[in-house]
TrEMBL record:
Species in which this protein is naturally found: Aromatoleum anaerobium
InterPro entries: Phage_regulatory_Rha (IPR014054)
Entries under Pfam families matching the protein: Phage_pRha (PF09669)
Name the UniProt record assigns to this protein: Uncharacterized protein
NCBIfam families: phage_pRha
Length: 145
């Protein structure tokens, strides 16, 4: 997955945490559920450099890679800029297929459940915004009379 695009500097809610509060597995980023390569490495107990290498060596199409693995940067605890990826549900599924073992299976389930929760909430919000406000509906009914 050689990606010729230049990575973006972190600007979303997915910016790595600098403290020890448990980060959610999945968050909304520009109206899409995503996780990060940092969280994947941490939760699956993998060396971060190995997760980056696994992403970069995925045998997927360039289009799939572009849509599901967005290169970004973060500043580590030493103040050094490091690469990372924001990963969609599909990208996560493709990447995690290669992780095996009981612990990996449990983390796959946890991530999938987190993606489901975020996507359900996004659908709920989208549906709620699409419905006409009660006052608007009431005004429309008065105009029709």
């Amino acid at each position: 997955m050689n990606n010729a695009r230049h990575p973006k500097q972190m600007t979303s809610v997915l910016e790595p945490r600098r403290h020890h509060i448990a980060a959610p597995l999945v968050e909304l980023d520009h109206a899409e559920a995503r996780t990060t390569s940092l969280l994947v490495a941490e939760k699956f107990g993998k060396l971060y450099k190995n997760v980056l290498r696994a992403i970069e060596n995925l045998e997927c199409s360039p289009e799939f890679a572009r849509l599901n693995f967005e290169p970004r940067e973060y500043v580590d605890d030493r103040g050094k800029v490091q690469p990372m990826y924001c990963i969609t549900r599909d990208g996560f599924a493709f990447l995690a297929m290669g992780f095996t073992g009981r612990s990996a299976a449990q983390w796959k389930e946890n991530f999938i459940a987190a993606f489901n929760r975020i996507e359900r909430e996004l659908r709920r919000i989208t549906t709620q915004r699409a419905l006409p406000d009660w006052q608007e509906a009431r005004q429309l009914s008065f105009r029709a009379e």
